[in-house]
Amino acid sequence: MKTMSPHLINKAATGKRILILGASLENAPYIQYMLEQGFNVVCADRCPADFKGQFDAYGSAFTLYAVDFSNDELIDEIITKEHITHTLALPIGRALICLGRINDKFGFIGPSYKAIDTLTNKLSFHRFCELNELSHAQYLIVQDNSEHGLLEDAHLIEAQAQYPFIIKPAFGSGSSGVCIINNRQELLSYKVPERFVNSPLLVEQIIQGSEYSCNVFVDSYSKPHCIGMFKKGLSKPPYRQEACYFSDDYTDAFDTVYESMAKICKSLDLRQCFINADVIIDHNAQPYIVDISPRIGGNSLLRLLSFNGNHPLRFFTDCVLGDKDVLVQEQKCSVMRFFDFQNSFTYEGVTSLKTGKKSALDGSIDCCFSPADKADIISLVNNLHIGDLLGPMTNGRDVARGHIFVQKEDTASAFAMTSQYLEALT
Questions:
Q1: Rounded alpha-carbon distances, angstroms, from residue 21 to 29, 62, 121, 195
Q2: Which residues pair with residue 382 across a beta bridge?
């Protein structure tokens, strides 16, 4: 990650002071970008990550408060003390509603409490879709009981939903706790993540079709602009994790979902903010928004957006802070694939294409690709260690195993190259 010396900072930008809730390592690239552009960044997090001096070169331009950002009184004092001018919504899940309260109280640009609460509460969003005549999956809500599981609700669920269906925490975020249920045995053995115990559960009928990650910037007129539409490959059931992203010209796919997205933006008065949504387009070209949040996506999506020339913070600095027009670059053909495997096995290294033997060097690509192929690799991260037990992905944290990101003339060729590497790992 590039570090800019303090004397290179754009002094004209230093009057803008940006509040970010959450100081995880995942937020580091966004913090870095804003500091490089010359803005002051203030972060608040009860348990901030150890950035190991990454931002020391920026001096007082970066301020970190180790405080709980749900403490309204304390956060309001910080906002006043630091003379905050803008807020930035990054991936902090359901806790994003704290930012909505702040935006409402201080009149900051960004999503309101109502908008955030409506979109991040999955039950509220279903009801919003009903009121606004938007397509959504058939669903029912049940109350989880941590002691008896779903035994008492099994008959109720089976009476109203057909196998297979998806079960998820109603107030959750991301893929945590999302599981495909194929039969009664799987229903009764479903375990809700600890942080969602005794919270409502949502049972949704599965929608068959192509799934996309839809990344949107909303301008000052509530018009949504697609800054990234990526087709998703999912991990093996029963879990639903993003095992692969395809980047290509998916203009038609966004055109299909545009009317629904525009209605959401207008109804909730969303302006100069971001939306990250999971969208399924069924076989009848009907769009279903199955998960949505008014914020920027995570680091994997950041890699894809940046590769295509559509870094989300470029839109924030140009269009929100700089009042410029929205300019979106066309997407290039590429595939980002995470280390998801069909069967369980013990990792022994990378198999050499020439000798068929395992390389002791974790993550080695020299033994797996030709010089010409290596030129097509945008990014390869291998965090595996000899002796690791691997298999299908079980939760979102499994993407930390590693990924391979390849650009080719078409997505089929890029996918084939990623397959070559994953096969060399097994």
A1: 14, 13, 19, 20
A2: 402
- Four-residue CA torsion sign, 17, 18, 23, 26: negative
What amino acid is encoded at 41 in this protein? V
Residue 307, token pair as written in the block? 């590769």
Among 126, 130, 128, smallest CA distance to 203 is for 126
What the block records as the tokens of 9 is 């900072």
Which residue, chain included where needed, has tokens 């630091």?
A: 82
Q: Give tens-digit pLDDT for 35-90.
A: 999 999 999 999 999 999 999 999 999 999 999 999 999 999 999 999 999 999 99
> Which amino acid is present at 257?
V
- In DSSP terms, which residues pair with 230 in a beta bridge? 213, 247
d(CA 213, CA 246): 10
Number of helices and strands (H, E) in the chain?
A: 12, 20
Q: Looking at 294-353, which runs of residues are DSSP E strands?
A: 334-338, 345-346, 350-351
β-partners of residue 251 are none
Q: How far is CA 83 from the centre of its chain?
A: 30
Torsion of CA 35, 36, 37, 43, to 10 degrees: -10
Report the alpha-carbon distance of residue 399 to residue 75 in Å, rounded: 33
